Amino acid sequence: MSNKIELAIVSIEKKLSAKFPLLYRRYLKENIKDNEPYEIEIYNGDFVYFYNCFDLEERNETYEVHIYAPEYFMIGQDGDLGYFIRLKSSDDKIYSLDLGALGSIPMEEAAQDIYSLIRT
Hints:
5 helices, SMI1/KNR4-like, 6 strands, 6-stranded antiparallel sheet
């Protein structure tokens, strides 16, 4: 299964002409895998659904992230709150924003990386 997931990730990265942040990429491959949905409790006690690599493109197309926030890629959500990585950036930061405000206000930094977002 790991090879299938790796191929799916590489395919998305090629379409985006960008690489996923290293820590998010690792978490996607090793933890989320092809689970659907993959619910994670984050540091503030909320639960976020993170998309597997086979659902990522569809969720981003549904919310037209490429139009309203082209520098970002949505990786999960908690109701109307989306969680994003920044494309073409060397950092591993996770950002969040109300999906209704996409493109109209700046993203908020939610965590330094996917691992610090997760409640341990």
